[in-house]
Write a structure and sequence with these properties.
This protein has 436 residues and is an alpha+beta fold. The chain is built from 13 helices and 16 strands. It folds into 2 domains: 136 residues, PGBD-like superfamily/PGBD (Muramoyl-pentapeptide Carboxypeptidase, domain 1), CATH 1.10.101.10; 267 residues, Thrombin, subunit H, CATH 2.40.10.120.
């Protein structure tokens, strides 16, 4: 979002191949290769398309060759960029708005690449400043944590409290059947011993899920009276976490069969002074375990629940360097199985991933990283919404989406943004301060 254009001068228009000069504290910074015209699928041997493909490749949206041909792979990459940039509908065509977003991102990356000092970055648009600061923090962290990075293959798994990673299945009230029916499932992580669970917002908030996913079928069901009735939670029976080597070799899965607790929604990030794009990225919610479930009675579990639940701490350190190896655990959907038609179908599985890049907000969170892009070693199944991402036993983010075209790629809400939002909620028991 361009908040000011008084320091931006375009020289020569299309004839000058998009040469851009930014008068930054009296120092001009150029960014060649900016797009000066709209682009559509079908173009071939185009220098502008080559620039587009190069931009998409460097950003991780495109993994094909640089050909200058605007074909299927390029169109899919443009769609991925549009989705991340909050452009709807994601048409795969570079229209005026998409072109402006691409050029702005190119400028931000150019500014970060030449090492603009922090004092100069504060004079940029909020987006450019945030990317420059994020790049500087990441580089500093990379230099100071090289030794830690070399040992991540053996250290992170051992510190994870895997029993804090819970399976969630939610029931919707069906007005025609006049009963609660199993609707969807997800993953969450207990972040407070009193039973507060962090999960994806679209797992717990149907109306928000409709808005962000444009699910017309679900929207019609809601209009007909369908609503969230309650959620049930399963805690792993054992605190046995697979090592990195085991995940790479066989990726053992831990079944979870007893959903012994019910949970209610206690917080959704609403009424915040954020942009539409930032609101879509605040895909998290807080549930609270509040009672025993029918499963607990059926399996004759004790008629009480613990004073303290196993919990994991939200990360409070700096941003990790890119290429840092992290672990995520969740309950993905299995091929050929419906989403929860039997309680036997919930399996806790791990995923080894690397940090690819960071994305800042464009308004309230313009100086903070909101989303972390991750790349898994192997293709991962859908249904991982709400899976925590761990670094040295702490939660650095919450996976909220995966790339439909590139199943190894996923996106996580950054824990620092979650902490900032929760710190001002006034929730009882101080869910941040009371962390283990």
């Amino acid at each position: 979002m361009l908040k000011s254009v008084k320091n931006i001068v375009v020289i020569g228009g299309a004839a000058a191949a998009g040469l851009l000069l930014v008068l930054w504290g009296g120092t001009p910074v150029s960014a060649a290769g900016l797009l000066t015209q709209n682009l559509a699928p079908g173009l071939k041997s185009s220098s502008a398309v080559r620039d587009l493909q190069q931009f998409l490749k460097e950003g991780g949206w495109y993994d094909g060759p640089i050909t200058g041909n605007y074909l299927r792979l390029t169109q899919q990459a443009v769609k991925r960029f549009q989705i991340q940039a909050g452009i709807r509908p994601a048409s795969g065509t570079v229209d005026l708005l998409t072109r402006l977003k691409i050029n702005l991102r190119s400028l931000e990356l150019a500014l970060a690449a030449v090492g603009i000092e922090e004092r100069r970055a504060t004079r940029a648009t909020p987006e450019a400043a945030s990317y420059a600061e994020a790049a500087a923090k990441a580089e500093s962290a990379r230099r100071e944590s090289e030794k830690t990075r070399q040992t991540t293959a053996t250290t992170p798994a051992s510190a994870i409290n895997i029993q804090s990673v819970v399976a969630i299945r939610c029931y919707g009230w069906d007005p025609y059947e006049k009963q609660a029916v199993l609707g969807w499932k997800g993953t969450g992580v207990i972040i407070n011993p009193k039973g507060y669970i962090l999960t994806a917002r679209h797992v717990a908030d149907l109306s928000w899920a409709v808005t962000t996913a444009n699910d017309q079928a679900l929207l019609q069901k809601i209009k007909n009276g369908y609503r969230l009735d309650h959620c049930e939670v399963a805690v792993p029976a054992q605190n046995t976490v697979a090592t990195v080597d085991e995940i790479r070799a066989v990726n053992p899965q831990q079944p979870v069969r007893i959903f012994g607790y019910t949970a209610a929604v206690v917080y959704l990030p609403t009424d915040l002074p954020v942009s539409d794009l930032e609101s879509k990225n605040l895909d998290f919610a807080i549930l609270k375990i509040d009672s025993l479930s029918d499963d607990s009675k059926y399996f004759k579990l004790p008629d009480y629940y613990p004073d303290k639940f196993p919990a994991s701490r939200l990360w409070t350190g700096d941003l990790l360097p890119t290429d840092s190896e992290v672990l995520s655990f969740g309950y993905p959907g299995e091929p050929g199985l419906s989403a929860g038609s039997s309680f036997d179908q919930y399996f806790l599985k791990g995923s080894i991933e690397k940090v690819v890049k960071y994305f800042a907000g464009d308004s309230y969170f313009s100086r903070e990283v909101m989303v972390t892009q991750l790349l898994a070693e192997n293709a991962i199944l859908g249904g991982r919404s709400g899976s925590p991402v761990f670094w040295q036993g702490q939660v650095i983010g919450l996976i909220v989406s995966t790339d439909r075209d590139l199943q190894r790629q996923s996106y996580a809400v950054n824990s620092q943004v979650i902490r900032k939002v929760l710190a001002g909620t006034g929730l009882p028991l101080g869910i941040i301060a009371a962390q283990p």
